Amino acid sequence: MLLIIVTSALRLRSACRLQRIQGHMMSTKAGSEVLFEKVGNAGVITLNRPKALNALNLTMIKHIYPQLKKWDKDSETDLVIIKGAGEKAFCAGGDIRAVSEAGKAGDSLTQDLFREEYILNNTIGTYQKPYVALIDGITMGGGVGLSVHGRFRVATEKTLFAMPETGIGLFPDVGGGYFLPRLQGKLGLFLALTGFRLKGRDVQRVGVATHFVQSDKIVSLEKDLVDLKTPSNSDVAQLLDSYQEQSSLDAEKPFVLQEQTDAIDRLFSAGSVEEIMENLKKDGSAFALKQTETLAKMSPTSLKLTFRQIQEGARMSLQEVLVMEYRLSQACMVCNAIPCKCNALSFHYPNQI
Ligand SMILES: *[C@@H]1O[C@H](CO)[C@@H](O)[C@H](O)[C@H]1NC(C)=O
Ligand SMILES: *[C@H]1O[C@H](CO)[C@@H](O)[C@H](O)[C@H]1NC(C)=O
Questions:
Q1: How far apart are CA 346 and CA 169, in angstroms?
Q2: What distance in angstroms lies between residue 95's CA and the mean position of ligand 1's atoms?
Q3: pTM of structure
Q4: Residue 351: partners with Cβ closer than 8 Å, 6 or more residues away
C-alpha cells in the first residue's frame, strides 16, 4: 500500500516536472526561432526553425536586424557568423505561405515582411565587420538574401542554391536584381527565369559562394573563426582559403552547366521573354527543349517581371535595386490578393523542396 502511494507520488511529481519543463519550453519558444550568441568576440546567429527548413519570418527578421546593428557598433564584437540549425537547410526562403495568406487578407504583414527584409539585405550588403554565412544546406530566396550580399559565403557539398520565385508568382528579390546580372554571361538571367538549382561546388564556381569547404570541416572552421583575434577581412579570407585548400571533395567533378554555358549565353541573349522562347524552340536541342518545358510551368507575369528586373538591375546599385524590388513586391502582392495567374503555386513554397 505504502509502495503504491510512494510510486503514485513519484509519478505525480515527475508528471509535474514534465509539465514544468514543457511550460518552460513554451515560454522560451517565443524568440527561439533565431538564436544569438556571443562566442569569444564573434556574434553567432543561428536560424532555428529546422522543421520549416529555417524559413525566415517577420519575427526573425525583426530580431536579426537590430542585433546586427548592435554588433556592428560593439567594440567587443569582431566578426559575425550566420548559420542554420539542423542538417538540411541554411534557409529555404521567406515564409511565403504566411505572406501569401496575409496578402489575400489585405494584411500589412506582407508590406512589413518585405520592407524589413529589404532593410536587412542592405545592412548585410554594407556591413563593416567580417560577415561569414555558412550556407551548409538549402539556400533559397530569403536565405540567399541573408548570405549573398555579405562578404563571405561558404558553400559545402550540401548546399543547394536556387531562386525559385518565378514558379510562385514572385520574382527573385532580396537583391536578386543586383547579384544575378553580375554573374558571368547570361547565367544569372537563366537561373532567375528557370529556377535552376545549383549544388555544392558549383555554387562557389558561379560566384554565389566565395568559398567551398567540406561539410565535415564546418564545425572546426567555425571554431577557428571564433578564435581569430580582431580579424580583418583579409585574415578571415586567409583562414577560409586554407580550409578550401583542404577540401578536395568533388574537385574533379565538372561544372554542371559546363557544356551549356555557350548555349545559355546565346539563347538567353534576347530583348524579351518571348524572344528567349523563340530561341529555345528554334534551337531544338535537348537542353533547349527542357528549358522550354520549365519556362512553360512558370508564371508568365513573373517571367516578364524578372526579365525586366534583371535588365534594369544590371545598371543599378544594391540600394537602388532593393528599392525597385520593394516596389515590385508590393505590386505583386496586390496582384496576388486578387486571385490571378501569378498566385498559382504560392502554397507549395517552401514545403515543395
Ligand atoms: C515565426 O516562427 C516562429 C517559430 O515557428 C513563431 O513562433 C512565430 O510566431 C513566427 N512569427 C510570425 C510573424 O509568423
Ligand atoms: C534579400 O536578398 C535575397 C537574395 O538576394 C532575396 O531573395 C530576398 O527576397 C531579399 N529580401 C528583400 C526583401 O529584398
A1: 7
A2: 9
A3: 0.82
A4: 97
Q: What is the pLDDT of residue 349?
A: 32
Pocket of ligand 2 contains residue 173 by CB under 6 Å: yes
Nearest-10 Cα torsion for 104, 106, 109, 110: 60
The confidence score (pLDDT) of residue 31 equals 65
Q: Which ligand is nearest to the CA of 113?
A: 2
All structural domains of the chain with their residue ranges: 28-337
φ, ψ (nearest 5 deg) of residue 206 = -85, -10
Our answer to whether residue 173 is catalytic in this structure is yes
Residue 95 CB less than 6 A away from ligand 2: no
Q: Can you give the pLDDT at residue 170?
A: 86
Tell me: the pLDDT tens digits for 40-93?
999 999 999 999 999 988 788 888 988 999 999 999 999 999 999 999 999 998
Q: What are the two backbone dihedrals, phi and then psi, of residue 203, each rounded to the nearest 5 degrees?
A: -65, -35
Give 101's contacts (C-beta < 8 A, 6+ positions apart).
Answer: 107
What confidence tens digit (pLDDT) does each residue in 220-257 have? 999 999 999 999 999 999 999 999 999 999 999 999 99
Q: Pick the catalytic residue: 43, 84, 93, 94? A: 94
> Among 25, 32, 33, which is best to mutate for testing ligand 1, by the most ligand atoms less than 8 A from CB?
33
| Class level of CATH domain 28-337 | alpha beta
Q: What is the end-to-end Cα distance of the chain in Å, rounded?
A: 57
Ligand 2 center to 118 CA (angstroms)? 6
Please work out whether the CB of residue 48 comes within 6 Å of at least one atom of ligand 1: no
Q: Is the pLDDT of residue 18 over 70?
A: no
